[in-house]
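Please check this chain.
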Amino acid sequence: MDTTHAADRTLVDHLDHGRVLIAGAGVAGRGVARMLAGLPSTVTVADDNATARGALATETGCRPVDVATATGMLGETDIVVTSPGWRPDSALLVAAAQAGVPVIGDIEAAWLADRAGLFGAPRTWLAVTGTNGKTTATGMLHSILVADGRAAEAVGNIGTPPGEALLSEPHTDVLAAEVSSFQLHWAPDFAPDAGCVLNLADDHLDWHGSFANYAADKARALTGTVAVLALDDPAVLAQAAREGVVTGERRGFTLGDPAGAAGAAGAAGAAVPGLTTVTGVRDGRIVELDTTSGDLTDLAAATGLSPAGPAGVADATAAAALARAAGVAAGAVGRGLASFHVAAHRGQVVADVDGVTWIDNSKATNPHAASAALRGLGHVVWVAGGQLKGAAVADLVAEVAPTLRAAVLLGVDRGILADALAAAAPDLPVTVIDETDPTVAMREVVEAARGAAGPGDTVVLAPAAASLDMYAGMSQRGDLFARFATGSGTQPQTEPRGER
């Protein structure tokens, strides 16, 4: 069954039997090429990495060219499908726009192909985005869907590229899609069955040009049948209030009591009129309030979640709200959350030694993420530092300083954090590691943290900064932290795609 709108049909025709140029031979481009390989379209892949484009050509039969050649082919191209990492000002994409060739991304291509029924009955799409917590919330959502007996797959910035998921056998019925701001930028028509923006804070402004552009791209996840709104986040609600963003059903989620959140949201004005349900926390339980009848449905325990703390509970309430929007049974929410374990580097407890808990949140690569990682914890030895990328840290430091027992700092911008801590908490013990060798530096970090921590304390790696000043990625940084915290080695983890 074709469920595409008439305005989208031309793009579908281009994908199905037109001349398609794929920009990028990486993970996203490979997913699109595989999706199109069985269709009568003519596919060219552009990448200046000859090895990558050649391998993809061998696998899928597409034509491999370099970017300069691809730019010269735009006159004989019907549509460009770009990988999300390609910036809007990339020469090829600018030239395509000037030539009147439509440019879409991998999420949009898969969405349109699915809605057109090119790969069987259309799937249910549940989209998760936000500055922080996307991977955890998507993983929780997928776990809940599986617990409900759904044929579900995690796709997008987590798991399988969406185009490949359309080829899955047996047929996948529900796609839990982690979508980045980059992917949403190139998905102007994407309208999931239910979508959620977990939170919004400054990030990737060099790519988007401004916070307004970044937030607007994120808000595309709210444009479908059901918008699941973060009632605790004013920036998300401001985006939801923009004309034409939320046109479907409105549901909400909160860390607080759902009745109180629903009342406050209603008083806030046009952002959240007509909420049908609010998922929140009451008496240690995740519950869903029907705002019309006042009925309360028990869903799951709000304790014992992975990851622990407010950030984990917030992700769980969002995942529960999305799952319930897709008709998941109440009992499946608890079963799914109980069986879910957070991915490495996202709040994972990596050691518990001599009464000290060690938490790896190396994925906290900006101040907003570090705030979420530390919120709700007390007696913390904070491990931080790396590339701040110009982000301001004064507000973060002022917020977390009262909960800190000590801090250990490393990385290129360690001095900025040290100055902020000296201003906010001049009596706090702070150790600055000047070593630049990544392994030696992390060994010294862990030794300093161990010396500062006592029974009942928590050592948290929540850098508030990117890792590429010293490490191959945030995974290597977290792996070394865990290795020295436990005294054993760990296998490197694969870096996530899209946003870091």
